[in-house]
Amino acid sequence: xxxxxxxxxxxxxxxxxxxxxxxxxxxxxxxxxxxxxxxxxxxxxxxxxxxxxxxxxxxxxxxxxxxxxxxxxxxxxxxxxxxxxxxxxxxxxxxxxxxxxxxxxxxxxxxxxxxxxxxxxxxxxxxxxxxxxxxxxxxxxxxxxxxxxxxxxxxxxxxxxxxxxxxxxxxxxxxxxxxxxxxxxxxxxxxxxxxxxxxxxxxxxxxxxxxxxxxxxxxxxxxxxxxxxxxxxxxxxxxxxxxxxxxxxxxxxxxxxxxxxxxxxxxxxxxxxxxxxxxxxxxxxxxxxxxxxxxxxxxxxxxxxxxxxxxxxxxxxxxxxxxxxxxxxxxxxxxxxxxxxxxxxxxxxxxxxxxxxxxxxxxxxxxxxxxxxxxxxxxxxxxxxxxxxxxxxxxxxxxxxxxxxxx
Length: 407
What we know:
The structure is a single chain. Among the domains are: 77 residues, Dna Ligase, domain 1, CATH 3.30.1490; 61 residues, ATPase, substrate binding domain, subdomain 4 (Actin, Chain A, domain 4). 35% of the residues lie in helices and 30% in strands. The protein has 13 helices and 20 strands. The strands form 6 sheets. The chain has a 5-stranded mixed beta sheet, with helices on both faces. A hairpin with a 3-residue loop joins β1 and β2.
């Protein structure tokens, strides 16, 4: 197989950074990292594209850095999508197979999913993903793959993810203007979950919480499939802004202080220490204590975890725990604060599944872009799958575009 046919590329467009990965699909499901590029994000604010030319420049910088390491040009990428315009809901649809039991065919599965996705959406929104949760055959629930089973009526429960068309089209336009084709778009927490959650967590019930710069996106898994997803409008930038105001320091210095000394939970602070703080303007630097810093950060962290708790007060709770990922997950004390609030195990999710990943990429901040590469590989496998073989696709979490395209 030619190298180009095995190439996998992904692009994560965040408010803090733009990350590009180039990988190569190997034997036995192995995915090898070939190149990575990270650039300072420009043209984005709180997950929204606000300046097209600036965004194009950042995309080119990240992609060219990855291409230089990989020694390969990028023609197409999978791009992550998130933001306040995203909404989700669950739906059920079904079809009658006949008056007598007969075998479920691939076309029956497609028709049932089409019935489930036929929901009314605002005119400005379009479906991104149609994610099967379970099938029901003659009211028997819990069926993962009905292909070949016998029955009279086939139904399916799905999780639908929709987004405003304009923001997504703007992202695609920026990538296209950088000279790259967008192969697919994927909800960012869905991608991060693919890279970070274990099979047991997806089966028993876990929440993946992706803490970005502008917001926090979450997704709930139960019985191996997504059952709920949403957004909390607080991210790492809010902590940085609070520090800048509380310590009267520039934003760049507040970001450095947050990463080096920040703590979200005063009870877990331990020994207090002093650190130097740059002043605004030409005033000399001064000293501040970690305790003072924590007293600034903790109220915002408490607001964040309370909003997350409120959003997750649904029928589907984090039975197997909460997994924090994204750059904001590295804030000291946030795991303990979340565990105290939810009373379940909490851990930091590191991306897995890429061979040869450097220490820079073995970082929660790279979870989304790693998951996007895994999705790119699923698309490659779907294209090579013999026509009519639907079973493997049902077990994928990224089925919206695949079902719609009939692959």
